[in-house]
Amino acid sequence: MRQVQFDCREIVSRNLQIEGYASTCKMRAIISSAFIALSLFGFSVAKDEFPNKFHSIYGCKQINAVTNYNDPVHYLPVEEFDHVGTGSNYSFFRLGVFGRSDAIIRLSKVPKPYHNNIVHEIAIGSGLNNFIEVRRQTRFNTLVFTNHVLKQVPTPNVLSETEPFVIRMDFFKDGSVTLTKDNETKPFLEFSDPNAEINFRYIGFSNWLSKAIYFFDCPMYNFDGRVDKLNW
């Protein structure tokens, strides 16, 4: 007996009533449409998802770190950022970094902390990109300083030269600070300093063994809290 082949597209478009084929073809069309819609919309609206890693730094400002750890750092006033979120007892912002290791973030109360001033330093990818270290640093001048380690957590291969490492930094009124990776809700690092205020009025960027590129004043994405300029 000769096998007869039917084209589902023809059956559906012409509304042909061919026993055993019409309903099957229509179901295939519905399933196919559902998969197309899901691929176009379903995965793109998930909260805080950035399938393209570079989307996470879209709209950020960029700055390259200084050449040497002890080179004078240009401190940026956070109050001039366009994207700072505030909650009932905290403030927060997003930033990102490209680099091989030893990305240095410094937080200061003054724009030039080189006269016995205290700054707090977050070294991301220290130990050849194996851990994050938080330090209280006293700067006597641009070359003379002391570091006191407050916390160290293992973070192997946290930095990359091919995609940005983007975090949210939260500063709470009780003096604690948390760091949370983009697309995550639980902080991977929390610290405080019982002996000195952690002030983030100014932020600066440095490096140690390798160059780093920083992205700051990044737009917010689906975070709880009001996005506004910081009220001091």
From TrEMBL:
Segments crossing the lipid bilayer: 29-46
Record InterPro entries: Methyltransf_FA
Keyword Plastid among UniProt keywords: no
Keywords (A to Z) from UniProt: Membrane, Transmembrane, Transmembrane helix
Residue stretches making up the Farnesoic acid O-methyl transferase domain: 69-220
UniProt key word Disulfide bond: no
PANTHER family xrefs: AGAP008648-PA
Record's protein name: Farnesoic acid O-methyl transferase domain-containing protein
Species assigned in the record: Aedes albopictus (Asian tiger mosquito)
Source lineage: Eukaryota, Metazoa, Ecdysozoa, Arthropoda, Hexapoda
